[in-house]
Amino acid sequence: MKTALYDIHAALGGKIVPFAGYLMPIQYPRGIVAEHRRVRTTVGVFDVSHMGEFFFSGPDAEKFLNWITINDVSKLAVWQAQYSAFCYPDGGMVDDLLVYRFPDRYMMVVNAANLAKDRDWVLQHLPKSGVEFADRSDDYTLLAVQGPRTRDLLKPITGVDLDALAYYHLAEGKVAGLPAVVARTGYTGELGYEVMVENRYGVNLWEAIFEAGKPYEVEPIGLGARDTLRLEMKYCLYGNDIDATTHPLEAGLGWITKLNKGDFIGREAILAAKEKGLTRTLVGFVVEGKGLPRHGTPILKDGITVGVTTSGNYSPMLDRGIGLGYVPVELSAIGTELELDLRGRTLPLRLVKTPFYQPQPVS
Amino acid sequence: MDIPANLLYAKTHEWIRIEGDLAVVGITDFAQGELGDIVYVQLPQPGQTVDKGAAFGNIEAVKAVSDLYAPVSGEVVEINGALEDGPEAINTSPYDQGWMIKIRMANPADKDDLLNAEQYQATLGEH
User: Fold this and answer.
1) Structural domain tally of chain A?
2) Is A294 within 8 Å of B39 when comparing Cβ atoms?
3) What's the rounded Cα separation, in Å, for the pair A260 and A264?
4) Predicted complex ipTM
5) Which of A212, A230, A288, B99 is the most exposed place for a label (fewest CB within 10 A)?
């Protein structure tokens, strides 16, 4: 499949790769590192239209979402968003996702790679009445506009009061004259907004943002830099750092796991794991030497495998290899020194405080 | 894309330049473009021998790690030490400042199996 912006990505020289059933740009001609720095210094735009959008309404929508997700939907105010997840009964993760509350409905944004699985999961648990569910993943263009100058870029082209829009809140309004939903969310750690419009407005929205972004040298950003940006923030990526074999507490997602909100799918198993005590935990590390860890790179202590890298790459901001991985809890203290087995070459690593990089505050 | 006519090429996207009994080895403009931002390069030490078709090192790019294959057999007599701290030279100057190693060829006939610029260009058409 192609997003509404495929022709634009191709015309801009984007390197197109298959991703979750879509043809998506992994990078543009300036490359991943330059794109990464663009987002950290001014503003970049990501086409994330491949992500899925589910809608829930009806009298029992909140109750249902509170049963099927691990965060507390009852705490969500109208026009507020929440990071959450679906878990299996055994505590393993189906997907991580965002829940957005509108006055009359909820929207859920899920990973493209998990779209079919998530839809099945919802349908499998949907009550016979009381909740209306619609998968409208193919209907919307979603652009993530991210970077410290994002607000300066968007202000002149939107009626939405961006100064009043707090982190993890959303609003409906016009952007470039087009009906849009604007949410102050993102996957980069920078100031940023995600703008959603119907597909027929996608190209117009893109063009208006690039026109308004000229003073800030706005650039298109591909999936490659999306990954290095989220890695510097230690944001989990489903399929890498979290999956059906990891539970949210060991993934460092205790803050979205509301064990006291009442029953939900996976609660019993997660509670049992918590009471038993975690055996492993997701940590961040820097490589002491020249080499880049990758998903699956073994983590060793004194030559013996004790853990595994779940995400790893080059950090453009730290100018070194960084990674995330699971290690035994007793080896998880910040400052702990372990080793990586990089295809037969042993390199030292050191556990560090995360996020790896602290974005510059924007007033 | 730049494919100089005075070089010989391997299907695995390395080039060599013949200098007497030495072969200077690097990777092509196409290869560096596919790899994207190059972060580290692992090269053999001078004095080590390399075998035609076998891996002699690897390149770490942001996108992926890739092996480097020796286009000819022989002894490594010199490596480009500047790549240790400046591997981006492979991106910016793949045929000049981005050269990697010099091999004293054990068997000069090895080069007869390599491609000329036109033949190499034709292999890229398959991409």
Assistant:
1) 3
2) no
3) 10
4) 0.85
5) A288
